[in-house]
């Protein structure tokens, strides 16, 4: 045993090997050949092996040593670890979900990113991702094509994409849409609905044979750092897959210098290029969680997608009204937090005693809010009979209720409380 330990010139290596063998309830074998090259083989049940194997594969290829020095690892204390997978049945105590198969690839028993995680997600949704091509011309002469991507979300041929790929700034169709599937089939598509403000559109195709579809997931539980996959047809290169992480879950349009109405985007570092617009942003379960619409020119890893929860609401508007109905109050609003409240109290001691709410720094003259009696400096704490702490909550409460009166409770200087009644109007499409 002493001789065995002395073979380890690096304590970290010894600790790692011992921990792997002990935690995996496996077998640790140490082999030394006559030329003093050492290796360790750890045998353990495959569920535990799968959950630990992938990060360790970087050991042999890492480190500050040049490649010609790596032939004798024991000289520098870098003992290569190789894993052998015993052909045994999984532990019966494991849940079916943890031990079940996804095709020929076993699911991992922990919430880790496995070797096939990205590939499985891409394979699941890939057949439903389409290439969109719209001829561009002048006086009837075709001089090029506008390209984009989309996702089939219904067996009836409903395709989700971005508006700027298929309509002009006035919302009019750019013309015939050629839709090409991953399997090579081509269809002529029709733009059914489009909302240029949200940059979301729906295209429809007709097929006599079954169409692959993608499942819409949820963007509400995404966190910065979550893995995501961007799919589409950049530069007409169909079936292109890139991966990255969520950088921000609620990047505001105002942060990007975009005026107009309130909008929020998912920010990711997935590589996207012209032609990716309208393609799906996908989670590791192969569900659509966003629609890729833009990137920052001249910067790497600054890309943006419309969250799928917002997209779902837009689709409901399309079904119900044929367009998106947006109520308008005429308020500039800012979400409050502890830091902002503390700062406002420093510069104005009469600022109301609130911890959360929505600050009203500006009221548009002649707007519904102006007529209702809102004033700059008000803090909105209740709307429609519910407590509110964010602009998003106010928007969700209003939904598409134009012409419906809402009770609003505001806090003013010196903790004065006022109850107002405001009736939203439909937003001007040109705003």
From TrEMBL:
<dbReference type="GO" id="GO:0004252">
    <property type="term" value="F:serine-type endopeptidase activity"/>
</dbReference>
<dbReference type="InterPro" id="IPR001478">
    <property type="entry name" value="PDZ"/>
</dbReference>
<keyword id="KW-0378">Hydrolase</keyword>
<dbReference type="InterPro" id="IPR036034">
    <property type="entry name" value="PDZ_sf"/>
</dbReference>
<feature type="domain" description="FHA">
    <location>
        <begin position="141"/>
        <end position="197"/>
    </location>
</feature>
<feature type="domain" description="PDZ">
    <location>
        <begin position="314"/>
        <end position="391"/>
    </location>
</feature>
<comment type="similarity">
    <text>Belongs to the peptidase S1C family.</text>
</comment>
<dbReference type="InterPro" id="IPR009003">
    <property type="entry name" value="Peptidase_S1_PA"/>
</dbReference>
<dbReference type="InterPro" id="IPR000253">
    <property type="entry name" value="FHA_dom"/>
</dbReference>
<keyword id="KW-0645">Protease</keyword>
<dbReference type="InterPro" id="IPR041489">
    <property type="entry name" value="PDZ_6"/>
</dbReference>
<dbReference type="Pfam" id="PF17820">
    <property type="entry name" value="PDZ_6"/>
</dbReference>
<protein>
    <submittedName>
        <fullName>Trypsin family protein with PDZ domain-containing protein</fullName>
    </submittedName>
</protein>
<dbReference type="Pfam" id="PF13365">
    <property type="entry name" value="Trypsin_2"/>
</dbReference>
<dbReference type="GO" id="GO:0006508">
    <property type="term" value="P:proteolysis"/>
</dbReference>
<dbReference type="InterPro" id="IPR001940">
    <property type="entry name" value="Peptidase_S1C"/>
</dbReference>
């Amino acid at each position: 045993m002493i001789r065995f330990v002395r073979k380890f010139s690096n304590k970290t290596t010894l600790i790692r090997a011992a921990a792997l063998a002990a935690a995996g309830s496996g077998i640790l074998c140490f082999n030394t050949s006559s030329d003093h090259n050492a290796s360790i083989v750890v045998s353990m049940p495959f569920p535990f092996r799968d959950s630990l194997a992938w990060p360790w594969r970087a050991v042999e290829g890492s480190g500050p040593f040049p490649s010609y020095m790596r032939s004798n690892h024991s000289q520098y204390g870098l003992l290569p670890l190789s894993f052998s997978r015993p052909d045994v049945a999984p532990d019966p105590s494991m849940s079916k979900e943890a031990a079940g198969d996804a095709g020929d690839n076993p699911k991992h028993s922990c919430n880790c990113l496995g070797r096939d995680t990205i590939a499985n997600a891409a394979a699941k949704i890939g057949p439903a991702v389409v290439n969109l091509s719209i001829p561009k011309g002048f006086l009837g002469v075709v001089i090029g094509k506008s390209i984009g991507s989309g996702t089939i979300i219904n067996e009836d041929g409903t395709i989700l994409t971005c508006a700027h790929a298929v309509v002009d700034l006035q919302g009019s169709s750019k013309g015939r849409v050629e839709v090409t599937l991953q399997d090579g089939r081509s269809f002529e598509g029709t733009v059914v609905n489009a909302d240029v403000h949200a940059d979301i559109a729906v295209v429809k195709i007709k097929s006599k044979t079954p169409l692959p579809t993608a499942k819409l997931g949820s963007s509400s539980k995404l966190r910065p750092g979550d893995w995501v996959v961007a799919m589409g047809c950049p530069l007409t290169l169909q079936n292109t897959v890139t991966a990255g992480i969520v950088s921000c879950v609620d990047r505001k349009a105002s942060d990007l210098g975009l005026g107009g109405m309130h909008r929020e985007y998912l920010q990711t570092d997935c590589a996207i290029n012209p032609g990716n617009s309208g393609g799906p942003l996908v989670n590791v379960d192969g569900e659509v969680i966003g629609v890729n619409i833009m990137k920052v020119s001249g910067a790497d890893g600054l890309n943006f997608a419309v969250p799928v929860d917002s997209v779902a609401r837009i689709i409901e508007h399309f079904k119900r009204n044929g367009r998106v109905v947006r109520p308008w109050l005429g308020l500039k609003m800012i979400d409050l937090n502890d830091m902002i409240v503390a700062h406002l109290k420093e510069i104005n001691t009469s600022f109301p005693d609130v911890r959360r709410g929505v600050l009203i720094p500006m009221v548009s003259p002649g707007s519904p809010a102006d007529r209702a009696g809102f004033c700059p400096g008000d803090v909105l704490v209740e709307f429609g009979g519910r407590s509110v702490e964010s602009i998003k909550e106010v928007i969700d409460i209003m939904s598409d209720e134009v012409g419906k009166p809402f009770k609003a409770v505001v806090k003013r200087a010196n903790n004065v409380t006022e109850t107002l009644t405001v009736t939203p109007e439909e937003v001007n499409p040109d705003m």
